[in-house]
Amino acid sequence: MLHIKKISLVQFKNYAFRDFLFQERIIGITGRNGSGKTNLLDAIYYLCFTRSYFSSQESQNTQYQTSGFRLEGAMEKNGSDEKIVCTLKEGKKEFSLNNDRYEKFSRHIGQFPAVMIAPDDAEIITGGSEERRKWMDTLLSQLYPDYLEHLIIYQKILLQRNTLLKNMESAGSQADQLLDVFDLQLVQHGTPVYQARRNFLTSFIPQVQRLYDYISGTHEIVNIRYQCTLQEEDFAKQLSSARFKDMQLQRTSCGIHRDDLVFLLNDYPMKSSASQGQRKSFLFALKLAQYEVLRQLKTFPPLLLLDDVFEKLDQDRVQRLIALVAGKEYGQVFITDTHAERLKDAFEAAGSSIQLINI
Asked: Under DSSP, is residue 114 helix (H, G, I), strand (E, B) or coil?
């Protein structure tokens, strides 16, 4: 079991200083729009992932006119107490678990699994391929530490190769030899990432289908088509064949960094053909299937962070969602809403008690 018992926020987003105690399995966070409900969810997410779910720049995570922040979480995992601390001071970030400071933040990923569902997640369906790769990488990195390690090294080598392609003249006669080395390393680290993505999706799709049927209340065929250049030809051959083209483009035109997922509804791309209701049902099915995979492979349920779901789903879908997450198979659930009574009534109707925290 994974349970967060307390969190302290200092100069994090709109919080100057605030402690929160979590005593129940289901925590309702209520308050007016703009009061900081989402920021509290993000602080919990930050302690699990060493980064914000919403803000890529650390300056956006600090309180206005301050230069740093501190987060501390008291967790319980499988009966053991765990303390996570993150500090950002003058642009330098430190992260520790039980007073042991991480040299590599990547070592923390997967230790405290969590799934966030937020309104902006619609970008996973409607946005560019980077959004879908980010979603898939976040999930697989929590499951397989080797996956994250390969991905980090691949991205580092890719950056070096692209820099070389932009500066071929200054590299002179060594350019081809350097490209040979980079290509070998891209193949070495890109191929395991491709294999993990491909193998994972095969078993994942049926879980998404089952949850889509449940949340939507109807049966429509959903599918996820994986697009990767490695499906077409050996990666080393691709890099060799594309070298001249890459030199012209000054970037690497093939590889796992260009992968995409096509979400299908009844064999049509969801991006262009699905209604808003269908997209929302699929998005929740995708995230809850992610939750189930983590629960199965970690042998304990992850944290579930639900932001503003009452405003984004119709009443029938909300009722089905609440009934699902109120079940005993789910672990600690944090859910935000502007109406405390609505939250209380929804979970009581599902036979579950809820702790309400008003921001």
From this structure: strand
Task: Answer yes or no: do 50 and 95 share one domain.
Answer: yes
CA distance 312 to 125: 15
Do residues 270 and 264 make contact, with C-beta atoms less than 8 angstroms apart?
Answer: yes
pLDDT, tens digit, for every residue of 260-298?
999 999 999 999 899 989 999 999 999 999 999 999 999
Last residue of a domain, one of 295, 311, 343: 295
User: 196 near 141, Cβ under 8 Å?
Assistant: no
Write down the residue that tokens 């820099």 correspond to.
163
Long-range contacts of residues 135-140, Cβ cutoff 8 Å, at least 24 apart? 135/286, 136/197, 136/200, 136/261, 138/49, 139/290, 139/293, 139/294, 140/196, 140/197, 140/200
pLDDT at position 172, please? Answer: 72
The residue out of 295, 328, 345 marking a domain boundary is: 295
User: At 171, which amino acid appears?
Assistant: A
Structural domain range at position 98:
1-113+302-359
CATH classification of the domain holding 311? 3.40.50.300
Q: DSSP code of 352?
A: -
196-202 contacts at long range (C-beta below 8 A, 24 or more positions apart): 196/140, 196/144, 196/147, 197/136, 197/140, 197/226, 197/228, 197/256, 197/259, 198/226, 198/228, 198/231, 200/136, 200/140, 201/226, 201/261
CATH code of the domain in which 274 resides: 1.20.1050.90
Q: What average pLDDT does the structure give for the chain?
A: 95
Do residues 133 and 267 both lie within one domain? yes
Pair (195, 332) in one structural domain: no
3-state secondary structure of 236: helix
Coil/strand/helix, residue 89? strand
Domain count along the chain: 2
User: Does one domain contain both 259 and 201?
Assistant: yes
**Cα–Cα distance for residue pair 194/209, rounded to 1 Å:** 23
